[in-house]
Write a structure and sequence with these properties.
Chains A, B: It comes from Paracoccus laeviglucosivorans. Chains A, B: Keywords: DNA-binding, Transcription, Transcription regulation. The structure is a homodimer of 335-residue chains. Chain A has 335 residues and is of the alpha/beta class. In chain A, helix 1 packs across helix 2, helix 1 packs across helix 3 and helix 10 crosses helix 11. Strand 2 of chain A pairs antiparallel with strand 2 of chain B. Chain A binds a DNA duplex (16 and 16 nucleotides) through helix 2 and helix 4.
DNA sequence: TTGTACGCGTTATCAT
DNA sequence: ATGATAACGCGTACAA
């Protein structure tokens, strides 16, 4: 069949079809600019030679790759997995592809990954949160790489996200309205994580507005176990009647720990989550949490980034969060 | 600062450092082949001009992109999210980047995505399962694109996976040993999904080996609700004492449905899962399931693919699965 | 509508 | 150790 490993080039196709390379190129990139008859010949030639364009050459000549990069903390967190999934699906098939890199919640590593993706020709970037060195933003601007920030909101840059602080504030309102006054929080690690910080801040401030304070805060790494251990430690203070968690995984871990401690939720203790991922409706009782439209967000981010890459302007999108009252909250005071 | 939008090129750096472009190129790609003194000058020039190589040009000239492609059904399935996460992290930072595409369990779409990734210059591919048109394999071979198959095992191609059928067979053995004889299965959609088919086949054959048959099979789409509905339908036959599920999500859905039906697990019914993802230890009772080393698999796949891309041979890796006995299994017969 | 010819930024071969 | 210089495959003015 094929005598050599070499692939057909534009020139081969042109020769085969008896036209110039320019015409072949046109036929591929803007078919309407070439006569139907020649288009026919070229199409046949392409098929006959099993031609497919060389990526490097195309990128070099056109100065575009059609590659969009995304740097996220980790795909192990369902929140990012879902968002990225939706983001990728919202990208026009064939026009753009998604290059993903994870940084494990490490800002330095994030910077490296961003540089790596840009070096690999990313036409645009999807990033998580706002918290990064100004010089990085300057570099991005200098390199003229458009980007969209997600999973948070702010008053600068382009973003498709939501208000972490407000979401938590709403949850605190619910807990307070229930009558709770002795409230503690299990937060994700806040170092280099503005989403976690905003959620913690949302709790602190809402409480302060009512003249209250947190009865305890545990800052733990993402994971079921982190949530469980934090719960056990926090509950040394048995006067606590409600524990709000920075995310659903932490909450699920806390719930499991509560169960192991022989506590009945929500009779003995109220536990709340944040994100409303799948596990929130698998726990028993199901988790009261803050719903975040992760998929919708990924989709909006994809749309925005495309516009930016194609030189159009694009407004930021602030998505609403919503309290989902399920089974892990109740007034304090046991039965 | 910068008067124009143009970026520094190799030539600019060469001029600035007073050497030739060839030397600069060498300095970047094999620093040890250039004298320390000139290396110094070049390094300074690079920094001074804020130079970074043009991806397209590099790819064109070197015939390599450093991009690895992966096509998976969806990142919404934690199994793939974790595997891909591990895969990506096992890739040498800076040397390779990961291009991900999802196909939603659709073989046609998978083919398109594969072609798209190859068109984008992927040096190698990570694919899920073995089940695809022979012509696609032929095309991949012709294009000389190395690939590794995961989440399954077989006797052809390079793979880093596990034996779905054997995993299920082991689970059936456990259920049978417990004394169950009226067994039903909730399977994922088997169309175009050899992993789901292998799991179903594992159940069927193990049962047949003991002269038994399935008391019911429901084939449902991935998701909590699918598992729940299937459970409800299957349990119309109250003689059933055990339901094995094709994956943990289906099992979690079944468990929830059982709870809503007022059934006590495992007293009234045994329910088992497959994969051992996080939710398996969040349900109440925790799920008895088949553990699959998804992260380890992703890691092995990354190592294999790198070797293949770099022209070395590489043995396939068959990872072991393991039964995890937790709380959803018990002998039949209620209390 | 189609063809000519040059430029894109690197890599790599071959001298020196 | 370093320098010329020829590919690499495609896009795109510009001309015809």
């Amino acid at each position: 069949m094929d005598e050599t490993t070499a692939h057909a080039t534009l020139e081969d196709v042109a020769a085969f079809a008896g036209v110039s390379t320019a015409t072949v190129s046109r036929c591929i990139n803007s078919p309407d600019r070439v006569a139907p008859a020649t288009r026919e010949k070229i199409t046949n030639a392409i098929r006959a030679l099993n031609y497919s364009p060389n990526f490097g050459a195309k990128a070099l000549a056109s100065r575009r790759t059609g590659i969009i990069g995304a740097v996220i903390p980790t795909l192990e967190n369902a929140v990012f997995a879902h968002g990225i999934d939706a983001f990728e699906r919202a990208l026009p098939q064939g026009k753009y592809s998604l290059l993903v890199a994870s940084c494990g919640y490490d800002l330095n590593r994030e910077k490296q990954q961003i540089e790596s993706l840009v070096a690999r020709g990313a036409d645009g970037l999807l990033l998580v949160g706002f918290d990064r060195d100004p010089s990085l933003y300057a570099w991005l601007a200098h390199r003229r790489v458009p980007f969209v920030l997600a999973w948070a909101s702010g008053d600068s840059h382009h973003f498709a996200g939501f208000d972490n602080k407000a979401g938590m504030a709403a949850m605190i309102r619910l807990v307070l309205d229930l009558g709770h006054r002795k409230i503690a929080m299990i937060s994700g690690l806040t170092d280099g994580n503005d989403r976690a910080r905003a959620r913690l801040e949302g709790v602190r401030q809402s409480l302060a507005d009512r003249g209250l304070g947190l009865c305890g805060v545990a800052e733990v790494p993402y994971g079921l176990d982190g949530g469980g251990q934090a719960f056990t430690e926090l509950m040394v203070d048995r006067s606590i009647t409600a524990i709000v968690c920075g995310n659903d995984v932490l909450a699920a871990g806390a719930l499991r720990a509560a169960h192991h401690m022989g506590l009945v939720v929500p009779r003995d203790i109220t536990i709340t989550g944040f994100d409303d991922i799948d596990i929130a409706s698998i726990t028993l009782p199901e988790l009261t949490t803050v719903r975040v439209p992760h998929a919708r967000m990924g989709q909006e981010a994809a749309l925005m980034l495309q516009r930016l890459i194609e030189g159009q302007e694009s407004e930021s999108v602030l998505l609403p969060t919503e309290i989902v009252e399920r089974g892990t909250h109740a007034p304090p005071g046991g039965r």
